[in-house]
Write a structure and sequence with these properties.
The protein has 766 residues and is α+β, with helices and mostly antiparallel strands. It has 28 helices and ten strands.
Length: 766
């Protein structure tokens, strides 16, 4: 079949597939589901899902903080009237299950056969202001929870429908903001926090940043391509290939029902810069052959033969770098690794089908620069090669010093995460969350499952006393600023049956008194706080609380101390406990991060080792290839340690991705060296020739990769910022190592086995 006809058929087939991909991408949705970051398949996750089915999800809430006017307190009647009006408005909204506010908080009193709920605050009776404020400050659970200690702010807690999605969540938040404005609250006067708020902000920013990063990457890459090739087709064709691969990758994601989240949002940008490698190697080789006077057809055939092998291997190693992320138990990282790895392979397919087809159908380009001046890269690279070899001792010594310093600094890296890790410290959303940590109980939830021993119930006096002992430890030693449990319910009921007197807010002193109270509890069972803390059969209870977001390192220490306390002071024949909750699950990710990273890096290294062994059958050559690619990784780890950057979910992917991408150019280099050694007997001349042939593509692709990843530093998400910065630094150090250490190591170690290289030459000649 004539090549031009084959090219037309290829373009037709690829056009149909791309059309299907575009249709699929049109149905792609953005999503941020907090629950996706739980460790999939973990027994603690199964336990929490069953627990939340019984008691409700611990993060289905929104905190609304309202600040009193300057110079006034929250007990001003006018302010409380607005708070009460807002409380009633929110309670009437769809998807709001329950609202807890200072103006609807009541002190229940039982008189005769009736229950009277006496409000703590009376906005319509200004003369009771002093009395109300005194009662509030004496009542446990109000100050620091609903009212700030300095009486300058209040909190309204909105309990929402379970796992509320973004559209209804956004509608609820918009309605609340509109009502706040109508009530005269300026934006600086109120603060919102909770999963619903984070979900709304994260998805909106993902959409905006994806467009910004892609635009910046296209502009940057277009400029570099023009600078390199100085022809319109040298710019347009690579862009067409890579944008086509992005469409295919996103189309496949959509077809599999996967949404764009915080991790998969990186796929288009990452693929755009990573996918350029093959196209640049192909076009560089093609232009080089044309410059030597070879015909268009022969230039294309030579290019595909010589580049195909190296590009195939590099696509394989790069995709493996992403596929190793599938060892993660965190679903967004798993999806990101899977679909980016597939998309890298799709880019390779398009590079060797779509790109050759377009080059075949285009007229032979008129090179703007004559041949004798067209290979100025040879002169530059030749001087670099000589300079590197002349100063090889300095190169090795500096590399060794950097390596030693980096390993020492990398030992300072700590695994630590917080609930809003991916937001910078001055982000408005994070500042709102800090407001609740400063003035109220905090935003980090705490959950402890309470199961009485067989034969007992939650309302057993010994069970309640042990629960109270745990409560005391949690408030005094653990750091909970708010706590609620079955003990809270029993104390509240006892107070209600004793005239609502605060001194009666305590556990019964005898089983007989407790039995009388339990028989009366049915009067309160319809109250939401009862349903949320004790099951109807009283066979299980819940201890819940809130605290500041102390980070996973501190939380792990607190949890270890708590478990030790429970082992020492809790009688398991009376009460059994288990730590659970969303925050506990997020902390658990840290236990897997190091293992996942080591597993991913190990798979990467093993695969590269096998590839090099298959090419050269030499352990020495394997070390030669691995060293220049591991050195940049270790240097960047040192930078992380020196800068105090913590290892967390978003930054844990850096090393496996960086190694998979960085080794790409090395694979291209050694595959070209392998082909060169079939024709060149001298190892020195073969390395030099390979250096000149591959050097331009290595430098250009590295500049594009570094520049492309550098666009991510403009992200408002800390995780994305560090991915861009640290991978960019790794690749920058990688190209330096590629052009300095690699040739030195090849000449130093591989020259001792020349026979293995020279033997195939006579056979081919014969």
């Amino acid at each position: 079949m004539p090549l031009r006809k084959l090219a037309h058929l290829i373009l037709l087939a690829l056009g149909i597939l791309t059309g299907l991909a575009v249709y699929s991408v049109a149905h792609l949705r953005f999503n941020y589901n907090f629950n996706d970051f739980y460790p999939a398949g973990d027994p603690d996750l199964d336990y929490y899902e069953q627990y939340s089915a019984r008691f409700g999800n611990d993060n289905d809430y929104v905190l609304l903080g309202l600040e009193a006017p300057a110079g006034r307190t929250v007990f001003e009647p006018q302010f409380l009237t607005r708070v009460d009006s807002l409380t009633r408005f929110i309670q009437a909204r769809p998807h709001v299950v329950h609202v807890t506010s200072p103006t609807n908080a009541t002190n229940p009193v039982v008189e005769g056969l009736g229950v009277f709920n006496i409000p703590y605050l009376h906005p319509q009776e200004p003369e009771r202001r002093a009395q109300d404020s005194a009662l509030v400050y004496r009542t446990p659970g109000l100050v620091g929870n609903l009212i700030a200690k300095d009486a300058r702010a209040v909190t309204i807690l909105l309990q929402t429908s379970p796992n509320l999605s973004k559209p209804p969540g956004d509608s609820l938040l918009a309605a609340v903001r509109t009502e706040l404005s109508r009530q005269g609250f300026a934006e600086a006067d109120y603060h919102l926090a909770g999963k619903l708020v984070a979900q709304s902000v994260f998805v909106d920013r993902l959409q905006r940043e994806l467009m910004v990063f892609m635009s910046l990457s296209v502009v940057l890459v277009t400029g570099l391509l023009w600078f390199t090739f100085r022809t319109w087709w040298g710019v347009v064709l690579p862009l067409v290939v890579v944008l086509g691969a992005i469409l295919w990758g996103l189309g496949l994601m959509s077809a599999c029902g996967v949404s764009i989240d915080l991790m998969t949002a990186l796929l288009p940008v990452m693929l755009f810069v990573v996918g350029m490698s093959d196209t640049i190697h192909i076009i560089t080789r093609y232009v080089t052959e044309l410059g030597y006077g070879t015909s268009k057809r022969d230039s294309l055939v030579i290019t595909l033969k010589e580049s195909g092998f190296g590009s195939g291997l590099s696509a394989l190693t790069t995709s493996i770098g992403f596929f190793t992320l599938m060892t993660s138990t965190i679903r967004p990282i798993y999806n990101f690794g899977l679909f980016t790895g597939i998309a890298v392979l799709l880019t390779f397919v398009l590079s060797f089908t779509l790109l050759p087809a377009m080059l075949m159908l285009l007229r032979k380009p008129q090179l703007r620069i004559p041949r004798q001046e067209g290979h100025s890269w040879d002169g530059v690279l030749g001087r670099m090669f000589r300079a590197v070899l002349a100063r090889r001792q300095w190169v090795v010594a500096i590399s060794a010093l950097l390596l030693i310093g980096s390993v020492a600094s990398a030992s300072r890296i700590r695994i630590n995460s917080a609930l809003l890790d991916d937001l910078s410290k001055n982000d408005p959303v994070k500042l709102d969350f800090r407001f609740f940590e400063k003035h109220f109980a905090g935003v980090r939830p705490f959950e402890l499952d309470l199961k009485p021993a067989p034969g007992r119930t939650i309302y057993d006096l010994q069970v309640l006393r042990q629960t109270e002992q745990i409560e005391n430890y949690l408030t005094k030693e653990y750091g909970l600023n708010f706590v609620a449990s079955p003990v809270t319910l029993v104390k509240s009921v006892r107070k209600a049956f004793n005239g609502g007197l605060l001194e009666e807010y305590r556990l019964p002193e005898s089983d007989a008194e407790l039995k009388r109270l339990v028989s009366k509890i049915k009067l309160f069972r319809k109250k939401p706080e009862f349903r949320a803390l004790v099951l109807p059969d009283a066979r299980e209870g819940r201890l819940t609380g809130r605290m500041p977001d102390v980070g996973s390192i501190r939380a792990d220490k607190l949890n270890a101390d708590l478990r030790q306390f429970l082992r020492k002071h809790n009688d398991s024949t009376v009460l059994q406990t288990r730590l659970t909750g969303s925050a506990n699950l997020i902390d658990k990710n840290n236990e897997n991060l190091t293992l996942n990273m080591i597993t991913g890096m190990s798979i990467d290294i093993v695969m590269v080792t096998l590839i090099v062994l298959a090419l050269f059958r030499s352990l020495r050559m394997t070390l030669v290839v691995l060293i220049p690619n591991l050195v940049p990784i270790l240097i960047v780890a040192g930078v992380m340690g020196l800068a105090g950057v913590h290892m967390k979910v978003s930054t844990s992917i850096i090393f496996t991705i960086a190694f998979g991408i960085a080794v790409d150019d090395t694979i291209h280099f050694i595959s070209k060296l392998k082909l060169t050694l079939l024709k060149e007997k001298s190892l020195f001349k073969a390395v030099r020739k390979t250096y000149l042939m591959a050097g331009k593509a290595v430098i250009v692709t590295s500049l594009i990769l570094v520049g492309g990843f550098s666009t991510l530093i403009f992200s408002s998400f800390d995780g994305t910022f560090y991915v861009g910065l640290l991978i960019g630094l790794t690749l920058l150090f990688g190209v330096v190592a590629e052009l300095t250490l690699l040739p030195i190591l090849i000449l130093a170690f591989y020259k001792h086995r020349p026979k293995e290289i020279r033997q195939p030459v006579p056979a081919l000649g014969g």
